[in-house]
Amino acid sequence: MKPLTLLYIEDDLDIQEIYIDFIKEYVDTVALANDGEEGYERYLALKPDIILLDINMPKLDGLSLAKKIREFDKKVKIIVTTSYAGQENLLKAIELYLIKYLLKPINFDELKEALLKATDEIREREKPKEKIFYLDKNMRWYKEPQKLYFNNDEVKLTKNERRLLNLFSTNEHKVFSFFEIFDYISHDDFDKEYDANQVRALVKLLRKKIPKESIINVYGEGYRFNPLSELESSSY
Q: What pTM does this model have?
């Protein structure tokens, strides 16, 4: 996971001093700014993952700053602090997709909750998305961890059958030549001589375990993967 940076924008330096060490427990780097304009400049320079800012700041207030940032950045996590719980401010804050709206004096438990929510959302966003290929309504191929399922039961595959499905699922629109397939499944056997018939035999064996139409034979070229389209698979 990449290091996380938080930009803390607060014009009261004494308040900054109170919370900065606490904030450092949840992120890797804390950058500081003391008014809205400086905060915006530091945001542009640093592109932080999280912004903690006060509403009532000189030069540019916190809600105006958040709105300005939200015009082109929907991802940065924003936590707002304020001494006033005005209804108007609350309604404006809701429109800015904030992590939390904290009243001063800031409760450490509430600040912790806001920071954990922000970091959790960032980490979740960074996780690689699981790639699933539907071969029919009952059968699914998971590219990671390279497993084939029929309903909830795993279908046992040989090492080369798994390699073949993994190769196909790297590019479902590509026609893989016989040599490309042979080279991929035999990459750890340097002495093995190229034999297109071994590829044909492997495809034939795999087709006994999956819907036959999931692998298309492109005459004179090789084979192509043919899972269901996103539109078809979304109905399952």
A: 0.57
